[in-house]
């Protein structure tokens, strides 16, 4: 039985929808003992501590990592089904996944060129795709999307708060923490206490509907819980840092992301392509 980190909640969400269980197991078995591991591209600022932590997890698993920032001197050569990324230190052909940690909307010509080149690889795993990240960052749409997905909203209401929660979603797993703080804003409280907490089944389903709605594999979500026990959605950050939370709680968030990027066969969940926008007419629960 695979060890479950403290505070992690296993979910049945399968972003890829790639077929029946037997087919998935066959692909897992085919991946065991295969050739050299493909490279993970990481696009992040040079001082990004969250990206640093994921790089350490990947290299500890002997995975190849090619990290650079958008302003680095990198050349790209793309044809359908083929991509070569080259800088002064290394050359990578056909990476299998991208960890996109670049903040903000994709506005620069350099970023658009890079994304266009990466589209040459249709099976590339994005955590997260910048288009999905940009959509999910539109605060004016988040409340509507959250309500459509079944989450109670905190905005516009006077809610008596019992405590706050931070839920980190990675692929098919949740890492929830209850936050105990004497201050109205726990982010300003260096003495805040973080405790693992169970997530109600209805909230688990709603969170993964929201992830599916935006086509996300990673996000941090904040909630406020009232004395009656209702979880009220506050916001979702598809590119939120987690390094500080992992250090304070011991939750294995970086390991889960490394698994997602490296496609480890023991817990791979067919993460080939994001689902994309949730279909209102699909009738999904």
TrEMBL record:
<feature type="compositionally biased region" description="Basic and acidic residues">
    <location>
        <begin position="17"/>
        <end position="28"/>
    </location>
</feature>
<protein>
    <submittedName>
        <fullName>RimK domain protein ATP-grasp</fullName>
    </submittedName>
</protein>
<feature type="region of interest" description="Disordered">
    <location>
        <begin position="1"/>
        <end position="33"/>
    </location>
</feature>
């Amino acid at each position: 039985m695979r060890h479950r980190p403290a505070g992690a909640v296993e979910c049945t969400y399968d972003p890829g929808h790639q077929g029946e269980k037997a087919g998935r197991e066959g692909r897992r078995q085919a991946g065991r003992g295969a050739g050299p591991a493909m490279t993970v591209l990481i696009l992040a600022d040079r001082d990004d501590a969250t990206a640093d932590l994921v790089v350490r997890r990947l290299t500890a698993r002997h995975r190849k990592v090619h990290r650079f920032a958008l302003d680095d001197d990198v050349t790209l050569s793309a044809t359908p089904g083929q991509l070569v990324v080259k800088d002064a230190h290394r050359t990578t052909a056909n990476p299998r996944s991208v960890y996109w940690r670049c903040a903000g909307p994709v506005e620069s010509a350099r970023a658009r060129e890079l994304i266009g080149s990466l589209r040459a690889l249709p099976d590339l795993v994005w955590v997260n795709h910048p288009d999905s990240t940009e959509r999910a960052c539109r605060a004016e749409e988040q409340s509507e999307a959250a309500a459509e997905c079944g989450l109670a909203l905190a905005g516009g209401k006077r809610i008596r708060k019992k405590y706050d929660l931070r839920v980190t979603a990675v692929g098919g797993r949740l890492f929830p923490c209850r936050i105990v703080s004497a201050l109205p804003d726990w982010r300003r409280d260096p003495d805040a206490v973080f405790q693992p907490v169970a997530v109600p089944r209805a909230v688990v389903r709603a969170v993964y509907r929201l992830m599916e709605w935006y086509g996300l594999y990673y996000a941090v979500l904040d909630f406020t819980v009232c004395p009656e026990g209702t979880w009220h959605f506050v916001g979702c950050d598809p590119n939120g840092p987690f390094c500080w939370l992992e250090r304070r709680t011991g939750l294995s968030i970086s390991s889960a992301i490394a698994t997602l990027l490296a496609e480890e066969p023991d817990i791979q969940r067919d993460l080939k392509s994001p689902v994309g926008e949730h279909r209102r007419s699909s009738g999904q629960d």
